[in-house]
């Protein structure tokens, strides 16, 4: 539900053990800058005269994923694309040592990119929490059966901590009575996917020191109570959630982080991704470790800084111009942009709207006053970065666009500016983004998981039909991307699901179509996870299309999205992924 976009107290808990030393970070960044120029020169010279190592043939090859024009063969060498065209022309470049990959009808497209994925937090959630989400368990009864099986296989007294539960989709809240009925010998803690609500049984409360006498906690945390005034098992807001989490999960070490990120990166590669961008939740002192780790991962890592880390971002701005990604030398890790959070969540009715939520007088609230947003943009620009911002409601989008136009102007040389989610963007705001040269990145699973809730409970028609407006962007010739925002929705990584949602706009809950006129064609849908995604992380000159001289990042699919029925595109699986000319999966 996009609450995990925010640097919550929970994320601070899960990452505080891996934050490192700021003095060591400053020492590292200084050494990095001193060596960067020599590193890039040596790297480019080493790749200048590479032999053809691999040729792909015998399947549809789309140099531009959003263009149905195909070529017959493609050659790579030295981590780069060396030639493409007819089989006869490309095969003439082969040598005795060249490997020929028979696609056997599989489809080859540019490496697929998720431009908004909280990689570190997703990695830790996957490792430390038991997944109780909608993707695996459709009903509350299914979740209860799974918890019972965990209880049966877990020693008494050991914590069982579950994540991703969705009360909107899976059947409502949990009660103390229900969880006590499952186990009184195991402390049970369930964290909802919205990131602001949880539930626990009596033993979990006892171990966390939560008694009937507890009152509201500083910062807005509190524990739910029933009609009889007694604790009912529900937990609300970060301070209360943390009171239980501090006892339930030990703070991870750097070794745990490394294990988690490797496992998550392997899942991403198996899904067909070759790069993930983490917007605003990467801490400066992690960069050295993540840069080193990136060299053994099957994907590229990309990140943007949070606006609160503007001072610590400045050493990295010297790595190159702001309109391009700053690639950390000797790594597959890059930095692009400065992230700010403008409002909350539509599902929680905290996102900032110009009109009230359905049947209420609530409009949500913004995270900053207008003058504060201008100051944030000024600081980011002065530090040498472009901007991206979490904006769910149209009022938040309006404030952000006003600040951007005042500080950066139209089509800024500082680099491509992003509007994250832009869930409730109006037509005039789409047109304004086009005029200013800014681009949105949409979260498709809002339609897939919550489209019917937006329509029936949160906004009503016609506002819900214009949510996540792919079609309006496409008609305005406004380039856009789509993303997962993991771990926000708790859904499995699958780039082709994001493509299908653009084509179908079907809600999985009731199979209804949400805004049929906002559907787009396969050309727009595929560009959103390849060419435009590469541009939106500052790597458009090296990734996103298959062109001579670009990096050989490739995704092989077991079906052709250009010839597959729209409702079946999401079922297309990745067969192989290649990064910098090396096979990483398949």
In short:
By secondary structure, the chain is an alpha/beta fold. 35% of the residues lie in helices and 20% in strands.
How would you characterize this protein structure?
This protein has 586 residues and is of the alpha/beta class. It is built from 20 helices and 23 strands. The strands form four sheets. Strands 6, 13, 14, 15, 16, 17, 18, 19 and 20 form a nine-stranded mixed sheet that branches. Strands 7-8-9-10-12-11 form a six-stranded mixed sheet, sandwiched between helices. Helix 11 links the parallel strand 13 and strand 14. The radius of gyration is 24 Å and the shape is globular.
Describe the secondary structure blueprint for this structure.
Blueprint: H1 9-15, H2 22-46, E1 54-61, E2 71-77, E3 80-85, H3 87-91, E4 99-102, E5 107-110, E6 112-114, H4 119-128, E7 130-131, H5 140-152, E8 160-165, H6 167-170, H7 176-182, E9 188-192, E10 197-200, H8 202-207, E11 222-225, E12 231-236, H9 237-248, H10 254-271, E13 273-279, H11 287-294, E14 300-306, H12 310-317, E15 326-327, E16 333-341, H13 370-383, E17 387-391, H14 394-407, E18 418-421, H15 427-436, E19 439-443, H16 445-458, H17 470-475, E20 481-483, H18 495-504, H19 522-527, H20 531-536, E21 554-557, E22 574-579, E23 582-585
Parallel strand pairs: 1-4, 6-13, 7-8, 8-9, 13-14, 14-16, 16-17, 17-18, 18-19, 19-20
Antiparallel strand pairs: 1-2, 2-3, 5-21, 9-10, 10-12, 11-12, 15-16, 21-22, 22-23
């Amino acid at each position: 539900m996009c609450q995990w976009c925010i640097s919550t107290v929970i994320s601070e808990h899960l990452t505080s053990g891996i934050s490192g030393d700021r003095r060591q970070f400053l020492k590292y960044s200084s050494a990095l800058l001193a060596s960067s120029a020599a590193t890039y020169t040596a790297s480019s010279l080493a790749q200048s005269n590479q032999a053809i190592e691999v040729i792909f043939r015998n399947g549809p090859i789309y140099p531009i994923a959003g263009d149905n024009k195909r070529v017959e063969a493609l050659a790579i060498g030295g981590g780069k694309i060396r030639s493409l065209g007819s089989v006869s022309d490309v095969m003439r470049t082969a040598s005795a040592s060249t490997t020929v990959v028979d696609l056997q009808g599989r489809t080859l497209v540019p490496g697929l990119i998720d431009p908004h994925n909280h990689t570190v937090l997703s990695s830790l959630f996957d490792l430390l929490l038991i997944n109780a989400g909608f993707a695996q368990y459709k009903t509350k009864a299914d979740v209860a059966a799974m918890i019972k099986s965990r209880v049966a296989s877990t020693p008494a007294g050991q914590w069982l901590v579950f994540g991703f539960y969705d009360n909107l989709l899976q059947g409502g809240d949990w009660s103390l009575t229900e969880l006590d009925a499952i186990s009184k010998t195991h402390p049970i803690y369930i964290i909802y996917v919205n990131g602001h609500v949880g539930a626990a049984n009596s033993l979990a409360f006892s171990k966390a020191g939560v008694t009937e006498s507890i009152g509201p906690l500083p910062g807005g945390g509190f524990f739910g109570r029933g009609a009889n005034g007694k604790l009912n098992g529900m937990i609300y807001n970060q301070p209360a959630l943390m009171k239980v989490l501090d006892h339930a999960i030990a703070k991870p070490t750097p070794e745990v982080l490394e294990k988690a990120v490797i496992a998550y990166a392997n899942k991403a590669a198996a899904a067909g991704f070759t790069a993930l961008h983490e917007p605003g939740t990467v801490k400066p002192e992690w960069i050295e470790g993540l840069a080193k780790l990136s060299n053994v991962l099957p994907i590229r890592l990309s990140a943007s800084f949070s606006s609160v880390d503007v001072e610590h971002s400045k050493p990295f701005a010297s790595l190159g111009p702001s309109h391009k990604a700053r690639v950390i030398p000797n790594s597959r890790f890059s930095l692009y942009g400065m992230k700010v959070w403008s409002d909350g969540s539509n599902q929680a009715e905290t996102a900032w709207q110009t009109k009230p939520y359905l049947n209420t007088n609530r409009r949500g609230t913004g995270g900053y006053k207008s003058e504060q947003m201008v100051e944030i943009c000024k600081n980011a620009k002065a530090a040498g970065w472009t901007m991206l911002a979490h904006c769910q409601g149209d009022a938040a989008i309006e404030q952000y666009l006003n600040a951007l136009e005042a500080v950066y102007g139209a089509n800024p040389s500082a680099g491509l500016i992003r509007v994250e989610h832009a869930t409730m963007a109006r037509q005039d705001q789409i047109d304004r983004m086009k005029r200013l040269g800014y681009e949105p990145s949409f979260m498709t699973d809002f339609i897939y998981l919550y489209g019917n809730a937006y329509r029936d409970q949160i906004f009503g028609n016609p506002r819900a039909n214009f949510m996540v407006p792919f079609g309006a962007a496409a008609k305005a010739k406004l380039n856009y991307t789509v993303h997962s925002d993991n771990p926000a929705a708790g859904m499995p990584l699958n780039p082709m699901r994001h493509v299908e949602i653009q084509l179908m706009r079907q809600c999985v809950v009731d199979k209804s179509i949400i805004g049929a006129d906002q559907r787009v064609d396969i050309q727009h849908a595929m560009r959103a996870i390849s060419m435009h995604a590469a541009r939106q992380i500052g790597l458009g000159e090296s990734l996103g299309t298959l062109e001579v001289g670009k990096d050989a990042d490739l995704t092989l699919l077991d079906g052709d999205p250009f010839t597959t029925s729209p409702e079946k595109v999401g079922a297309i699986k990745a067969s192989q992924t290649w990064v910098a000319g090396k096979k990483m999966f398949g």
